[in-house]
Amino acid sequence: MRLRYGIVTACAAAVSAQKTPFEHVDPLIGTVNGGHVFPGATLPFGMAKACPDTDADENQGGFSSDNSSIIGFSHMHDSGTGGARSLGNFPIFAQAGCPNGDINACNYTSWERATPRINGSVHAKPGYFDITIASGVRAEMTTTNRTALYRFTFPETPSTPNTTLSPLISLELQDLPNTRTNASIDINAQSGRITAGGSFSPSFGTGRYSSFACVDFKGAQIKDAGVFSNSRATTKAKSIEAITETERFAERPAGGFVQFQKPTSANQLLVRVGLSFISEAQACRNAEKELAGFDFDGTVAAAEKVWAEKLDVVKIVPGGASDVVQTAFWSGVYRSMISPQDYTGENPLWKSDEPYYDSYYCIWDSFRSIHPLITLLDPHSQTLMVRSLLDIYKHEGFLPDCRMSFCKGFTQGGSNADIVIVDAYLKNITNGIDWNLAYEALITDAETIGYIPTENLDLQGVGTETRSISRTAEYAYNDFVIATLALALGHTADYNKYLERSGNLYNMFKADQNSTINGTDTGFTGFLQPRYTNGTWGFQDPIFCSPLQDFTGCYLNPSGRETYEGPIWLYTFFAPGDMKTLIQTLGGADTFVERLDFFHDSGMAYIGDEQAFLDVFLYHYAGRPAKSAERAHFYIPRLFNDSVNGIPGNDDSGAMGSFEALAMMGIFPNAGQDVYFITPPFFEAVSIRNGQTGKTATIRNVNFDPAGRDIYIQSATLDGKPYTRNWLRHGFFLEGGTLELTLGAAESKWGTGAEDVPPSLGAGGNGTGRVGERRWEVPAVPRVEMGMW
């Protein structure tokens, strides 16, 4: 998912004072300019995500760092998604009192209660968010796994004329995208407890889901309680039942409220919101179990401890790296652990002993960098996510590509859960995983045709007749990773079948197709092109759907054409399993490098969409790893930095954050393979402690230059022995060791030999073919005991 970005220059040379990784995290990065980052309080992969919601046009993450007003505080969000808003169910709002004591003079609907923020009042850190609005009400929030806790501090003298301090907390039966139907609310007049439920729509899929909340209070005596409808309130009723589908948001906003006497201490009122997708009763149980004591400061401290432990698996030696670079790095690591969200025990669709994770937005976005980074830093969580994907397959019939709020999401391209699963197998993510079930799921995904014809009609669903090129390219790589797993599990016939199919990309390669920009030929020939069922060729301009031509012309819609969120130029580079054949097809290594340079330098490349990530590092396959390092420094920190618009596109559940984190550690992966591209880290040294073995892998730069001039590897040693390969395997992180990179100011011969480039294992690569002909093996994966988890 995408937006057009503006360049942010981040050349600050000042080196920060010594901070912990936790202190370097800035959750507000990416909260304007379409980043859509959720900056509020949450735990790693937590269900509860508390945050102010604004009335900004782009409030997909709830809050936005602009001048928009605050319309409520809600308790579940997604982070970084494009398209429609999601979640934000049952927003609450705090008012210091009602003018003249009249409850109907308070504001209940989102457009009435919208209140400007006080500039400079926003503070955010992992597990905590703080803001003061123009009414003088300060709102602090923190969370446990399934419960949000708010601490509202009210002004002694309310800003509204003729108002005395008598706080009112309202809850609206609504969500952020305004999709509520069939909702109900009940208020206990004695305890003040509010219970609510409703039916809502997902943001990028089909179906509906139910959500429930349980709200309790501490810190003041109850004065009155009631419900509101159509912005009018009454204390005579304490419940509203069965708001029907015909009574939608614009026609009947509704909810409930509790009004209090003056708070007993420091004008503060605590509001606890338990959450559930099962029932109101379970929402209450979650709150009572997790936050029985309403301990706000203790909950903040507990969240800080959890986040600090997550970040502690990585150590850096800054070596003079600027505060911009360090903050961007640690914030990227942090954002990669916000989603997917752990809903285990909250699945209303089926009963299972397996974990359940949700908010996969989408695996098309996340397979390239999010899941590989989680594999490195938190293998236990990645194992649970893979098991969850397989349990979804077991009960729904297919692996998801996108899934949110227990609903089936739209598919953007291929079957990219295949890549996540095979990547897991190759990297020792195995504990409790049924690999026979996994293989069955992949084969179920795989049975389609050799290429996706242009204008193909979907006879079985509601899919658009688009994306034939990008889907063919992605399905070809899906077939490659299936072949990899087939070989490892001893399915020789399937290995041969899917390895051959992994070359289907070339069914849509038109060798004589040229490309022009403003009538001038680029000088490069041979591009993917649309192809009809009868084998004849169509045409799509290779630069279409890039910043150079109709940038937003290929979304998921009926007029989206034959590539998805990117031009043919980009998809012609996508052959991750067999780059050797692609390089030969495109004219050899020198021409390939020239073409890749042109793609990046012409303004055609858009790093704010995930497909471009791998193109930063494809120079490795042409024996030019130095140019990959140049490209990484070209984009970071120019477009990835510590500002509120410090990412170039939708964060997509942490995709931008994981890209910058992996690139800055110098180990970007080729997802679905046991391959990490070596480039110099952006720090003097970086170390990763493996969560399975407890061993530490360190990458150290010799002659490190924090200004980013000496970024070229002259030589390398691995545990003291010369190392010329320009790539690593995952065993380095499992077994530990030290990779030392000696840097210089110019490109060297290091990593440039034919024997130094990453393997090409596909249908025509360096050592592939049918069993009996192949010259490669699936890397042996050491099986490590999981007791250290």
TrEMBL record:
Coiled coil: none annotated. Residues 750-772 are annotated as: Disordered. Residues 24-276 form the Glycosyl hydrolase family 92 N-terminal domain. It comes from the Eukaryota. Residues 282-744 form the Glycosyl hydrolase family domain. One of its GO terms (molecular function) is carbohydrate binding. GO terms for cellular component: cytosol; nucleus. InterPro entries: 6-hairpin_glycosidase_sf, GH-type_carb-bd, GH92_a_mannosidase_put, GH92_N, Glyco_hydro_92, PNGase. Keywords: Hydrolase. One of its GO terms (biological process) is carbohydrate metabolic process. It holds the Pfam family Glyco_hydro_92N. This is Glycoside hydrolase family 92 protein. It comes from Karstenula rhodostoma CBS 690.94.
